[in-house]
Predict the 3D structure of the following.
Amino acid sequence: MSQGDSESSPSRFRARVHVYPRREILDPQGRAIGEALARLGFDEVAGVRAGKGFEVELTATDKSAAVAQLERMCSELLANPITEDYSVELLEDSAR
Amino acid sequence: MSQGDSESSPSRFRARVHVYPRREILDPQGRAIGEALARLGFDEVAGVRAGKGFEVELTATDKSAAVAQLERMCSELLANPITEDYSVELLEDSAR
């Protein structure tokens, strides 16, 4: 009945952020890994790109607010907008 | 009608491999990133773990064969079984 109760309380979300070199950017690390896989006998591999991943736990009022915050984190810190693409994925067991 | 036709022809799959430090392992990089996010004003972040990602294109006879191959790649090259956990994800637009 207090003012606090009428606001939606924030939920906890778990998300993954994927950061990969842009398609048009050379990816020597990915190429080296692809070649190492071929040497190990994985002949069926046609290409590898090597990226970074971040598992982030955060609180937000709802899913869209969580995604918006995560995208801000990417553009401000986690990804280099010149050379990298990023995507944000909320994990299934989020929002407990 | 030839022998070749009766075999299932391999399809192309696109997958992501996620490699993260195990929960019980310290993750100084993730911690530093969490602290940097807090300094940038992202107070809602409760934790960050920093990992690696690989986008792999490969051919396989079916989805389960693709996943099995990717898991072999993880245990043989992409992940360190002592310190890292991995998961494999086939991307939606796979199997063209």
Summary: The radius of gyration of chain B is 19 Å.
